[in-house]
Amino acid sequence: MLYVSLILESLRSQPRLMFWTAALSQAALWTLLPTLFYSAPPGELPIVLAIGHEFQLGSDRGPPLAFWLAEAAYRLSGSMAGVYLLSQLCVVATLVGIFALGRSIVGTAQAVLAVLLMVGVAAISVPTPEFGPAILAMPIWTMVLLLFWRAVGEGRSEYWIALAVGMGLLLLTTSLGWIFFILLAVFAVASAPGRAAFRSIDPWLCIFVAVLVAAPYLAWLVHADATWKPVLTRLHDTELRAAAVEWLRILWNLAVAHTGVVLFCLLASPWRMPRGTRLPTVGRMPVRPLAKSMIYFFALAPLVAASGAVALLGQPWSLATAGPLIVCSGLAVVVFAGNRIPLARQEMLSMAWVGLLVGPPVAMAVAFFLAPWTLVIDFKVLYPTAEMGRFFAETFERRTGKPLSIVAGDPEIAALVALEPRTRPSLLMDAPLRSPWVSAADARAKGAVVVWPATDTAGTPPPAIKASFPDLVVEVPRVFERSIQGRLPLLRIGWAVIRPQAPAAPAQ
What distance in Å separates the CA atoms of residue 263 and residue 217, rounded to the nearest whole number? Predict the structure, then answer.
């Protein structure tokens, strides 16, 4: 007797319900976890909000769109919950794009399989509360691929303008947008339908509109030579062997991020099953050769090209930045699996999928409660951001009679203080290039609070901070308690107040 699980039957009869269940479940879990347990934003998110607060046309961290949207979400919601929700909306939009592209290529049922496989890609799920350019680039790049397929693969010319706007938004979101732009052009020129499309005016108009949408950032970039000249200098001084080693390390990390996909494939395959076992399958119509080439190309080429560029330029890399590079991974596996995909070990497959969906957020929640008591691990997301911001803002206002407008010092601690919702001070970072909107001279003129992690009871500032502010009058370190303190020592923050300078008297 052929056994068919409830999940497989739902996949066949209600594929859209399965898709929305998977997408919204993941979004709900990763919205609730940081909203309920984080008292400080994760990773680079405080820096993202500090940059977005200034509404600059660009920064040393790339184009401005993600920073603007993060700041808008924070202001509209009045808390970090709005930013976490924005991040998960981007993830859901990414899965919608994958589902729509998959329906056009492999049919509805196998498109749902491609979406379910994305739960096994760690770069799509685990870092998603850390909103930034990479998270925003995921849905935009997915929609660009969908529109590109509509325009080139299906020959529907009405999608060229939408594709142009999508490419422009991608260029406004991430510096990797130029690599994606070039890869689209390479694939179009290499395919017969793409070459045929370039004989009309539509692709050329698409390129013009995309550059026009990104024109404000491009105009800023032309004059921001302090941003791109150091990159060229690093490129000139790069040691190729070290860059190759770093490139291989990044590729290895990306491969490890697909461990869940490998697990799903092993469980679903008939490997080590008794010969002659009847297995239920999920079928499709044959895939067009152009569609296969496109999915394989955009599953592999962005990984290789973007990771190579990052390694060559010496840019920072983390799992949170890998999202837009792997949006085609699940669809590529489904296309490669064939017209009829067998699903063996359905119960184990279902348990593995639910485990990879629910396991990471539940494990993190348990770790937040137990690790500070047992392993004495310091989670930075448990820092008391609200209490820190309120204390330093109120102290500065009591001493100077003015609201706090600038906070400086250690970037990680200062960025948390800069989230104080009442005053929202500007963040002064350790290099003028990183915070061109404010300078040390502004801090001396308007006054500022300088903060750093204290390593002794005297609160001695680090040498870099002492060099930037040689006349700093250090206060007694302020002690804060984490939201889950456990057996950790209290959080000790060194600090000092720079009083505003009185305006100079006019000359007689």
Answer: 42
